[in-house]
Amino acid sequence: MFRTKMLAAIGGAFLATASMAVADIFHLEATISYRERILLPEEAVLEVELLDTSRADAPSIRMASQRFRLGGVPRRVEIAYDSDLIDDRHTYTVAAKILLGDEVLFRSTTAYMVLTRGAPDKTEIVLEAMPVQADMGDADDQSIYGETWTIYEVTGRLLVTEDLPVMMIDEEGNFGLYAGCNNFAGSLTAEDGVLTMPAAFAGTKKLCEEGKMTLEQDIIDALSVSTGYVRNDQILAFTNDAGVTVLRMQITE
């Protein structure tokens, strides 16, 4: 009798421990599409990631990632994630891309927020076509050097001001940045879509209107996490390690 009760107690404790160890799995719904009316090869694969993008000064953290057969678009998918890992104080976004082998054909370049801070548990993502290496033509056409760029979007926010920030990049990769208050300078390298920014930026330290100083800091933060770039004619986008556009700019006329 005692042995039976002991076994029952041990069994109950084991079941309780096992139930505590089981992850609380939820699903996030995403609908993926792109604007171009083209049929992709059957081998094309859709990859969708849930990312913790809370810190602007640090790489995003991958919370969940899944790959799917693409089929047609729009393509509706569900991404499984462990809800115990979600912190209501953090910011989460969904990123997606379409791959053919190792080549990225389409990817998201906008931050699609989900789960926390009033964001929903489903999202609709429109992907942008990436330049295909074979169709890029002369490498000089894709260079970002030797141009003056006007910044018109920062982390998905369109700038509404008469004097938009300007970034000048010379032929050697040295750049200057002016956003209405202080002047900043540094040196970057940009080759084959890969961007390397300096660890720190030199700049003046004038005190200006709060709005201008906030904008300056937002741009510096965006530059600090920029690891890639995409140039389409006169439009240039800097992207972070998740492929999300953090800065958009155009050639200054």
UniProtKB/TrEMBL annotation:
Pfam families: META (PF03724), YscW (PF09619). It comes from the Bacteria. Residues 1-23 form the signal peptide. The keyword Signal applies. Residues 142-249 form the DUF306 domain. Keywords: Lipoprotein, Signal. Gene3D superfamilies: 2.40.128.270. This is Putative lipoprotein.
